[in-house]
Design goal:
Blueprint: E1 11-14, H1 27-39, E2 44-47, H2 59-73, E3 78-82, H3 88-101, E4 105-109, H4 118-131, E5 136-140, H5 142-145, H6 151-157, E6 163-168, H7 175-182, E7 185-188, H8 194-199, E8 204-207, H9 210-225, H10 229-247, H11 254-264, H12 281-293
Parallel strand pairs: 1-2, 1-8, 2-3, 3-4, 4-5, 5-6, 6-7, 7-8
Helix pairs in contact: 1-2, 2-3, 3-4, 4-6, 9-10, 10-12, 11-12
């Protein structure tokens, strides 16, 4: 089956932010991650999302990260900047900063913790979308925000000219059908559900395992798009241990992504900011075994 259009490419990775030993942002290391991703199968990157440890970075740091990544990526792919917070004014500030720094689009997650109702969610999305000329990718991840984006909000948000895409990580691939009918292009937000999302009409993926498996994920999508579903499934199946090691353990996300980058030689450390803590030696050993089992090391 032919996949729908993918505005930012088929395979994007929600990339980690590198930190120096003193906790400061390592812009050279962050640029190296972006270069690695674009060289190994990714069509673009998402910076300053959860995997980029956005809850712990400042507005100034976020702007510096976008600029460093844009310089590293050049014209090879899209750079999407996460601007989601639980404060509308703060998200507007981040969106304006991302636009000034040269981002190609922004990623806007449902406000978390304060859990606004549908009217509040729509207000948040509307205020941010109208503050910038950049395209907006909504991010639906109830496991982190406490609630899914209601369909009533999707129905109204698509009326905003700049809101065109969704990173969907609710665990329900069937929802893609309704979102496509509304006019959205949908990116899978869960590595382990990629094939299910593609079957239901997703255009691609925003990955975390893509730090180590960008080329393989790109091959899965290419084979599926070419109608070789058996080949796509075979390639995908070989990646399952890596998905489980990167996203299926208690201490996961930025921590596992950075440990994978260290194992690959992209970074020389796996520093994170609190409240996250780096993988310990046993966790790194398990991650190494899984990546080796998936032929990624």
């Amino acid at each position: 089956m032919t996949l729908p259009p993918a505005p930012y490419g088929r395979v994007l990775t929600a990339m980690a932010t590198a930190f120096a030993g003193d906790g400061s942002v390592d812009l050279a290391g962050t640029a190296a991650i972006a270069d690695h991703l674009l060289t190994h199968g990714n069509d673009g990157v998402v910076v300053s999302g959860t995997t980029g440890e956005s809850p712990t970075t400042t507005v100034a740091e976020d702007g510096d990260i976008v600029r460093a990544v844009k310089d590293a990526v050049g014209g090879r792919g899209a750079v999407i900047a996460g601007v989601g917070t639980n404060s509308t004014a703060h998200s507007v500030e981040l969106a304006l900063g991302a636009e000034k720094a040269g981002a190609d689009a922004v990623l806007l997650v449902t406000p978390y913790y304060n859990k606004p109702g549908p009217a509040g969610i729509l207000h948040h999305f509307t205020e941010v979308a109208r503050a910038t000329d950049l395209p907006v990718m909504l991010y639906d991840v109830p496991g982190r925000t406490g609630q899914a984006i209601p369909m009533s909000v999707y129905e109204q948000a698509i009326g905003l000219d700049s809101v065109t895409t969704v990173k969907h990580a609710t665990g329900d691939p069937t929802r893609v059908i309704a979102l496509r009918e509304l006019g959205y292009e949908v990116y899978c937000g869960d590595d382990a559900l990629l094939l299910g999302y593609l079957v239901h009409g997703a255009c691609g993926i925003v990955s975390v395992a893509g730090h180590a498996a960008g080329e393989q994920l790109s091959e899965v999508v290419r084979l599926f798009d070419a109608g070789d579903t058996a080949g796509a499934l075979a390639t995908f199946t070989r990646l399952v241990p890596a998905f489980e090691a990167v996203m299926g353990v208690p201490n996961y996300g930025a921590t596992t992504a950075k440990a994978a980058l260290e194992l690959l030689g992209v970074l020389d450390n796996r520093n994170v900011r609190g409240p996250l803590v780096p993988l310990d030696d046993d966790e790194v050993a398990a991650l190494r075994a899984a990546l080796e089992g998936a032929s990624l090391l």
